[in-house]
What we know:
By secondary structure, this protein is mainly alpha-helical. 32% of the residues lie in helices and 8% in strands. The protein folds into two domains: 2-138, no CATH class; 155-231, no CATH class.
Amino acid sequence: xxxxxxxxxxxxxxxxxxxxxxxxxxxxxxxxxxxxxxxxxxxxxxxxxxxxxxxxxxxxxxxxxxxxxxxxxxxxxxxxxxxxxxxxxxxxxxxxxxxxxxxxxxxxxxxxxxxxxxxxxxxxxxxxxxxxxxxxxxxxxxxxxxxxxxxxxxxxxxxxxxxxxxxxxxxxxxxxxxxxxxxxxxxxxxxxxxxxxxxxxxxxxxxxxxxxxxxxxxxxxxxxxxxxxxxxxxxxxxxx
Length: 240
């Protein structure tokens, strides 16, 4: 797990720095484009020259630019390949690898409709890599725990049901917030439980004549599941 340390939640996620221009010019391609879109929506002149038509003013103040207006200019989608690379492809909430064909999405941790500053729509620090399943559930729920701020052991897996439960290391003052996050994001729902159960059973029970699935394969695709198997002593004999 050393190579994955700090990359995934419900194991904590370590924030990754904004990409530098040498790899992907996030500031120009997303932030500056977004900043000028907001300015024009508020009737202000853009700070830069862009190809194409200017954006028609909709309001008279930056503070009044709405989430609906911002969604017409979803420049954050341009950063998806860079976001996927930066976080190793791991969903910040499901703690599993998202294949590029499985619809990785950009979650605005502070949702567009909840933001007091419309620029948060185009700020790298407000992005969390999320599977479309959890992003659609999270929507604009304002009080789920931030994967950047949780600690290891706050969440766990019940291997009777394969649902997410409050972990043994969640302190008393955090347990309600952990429980709320589980319920709000449907981390205790059937779909995730079925997915986890299938992955665990493939690891525990190899087909006749086939070698067991190595633990490193599970750690690569389902690192939270693998870490819980390890913590709860459910590894196959010989795995360490």
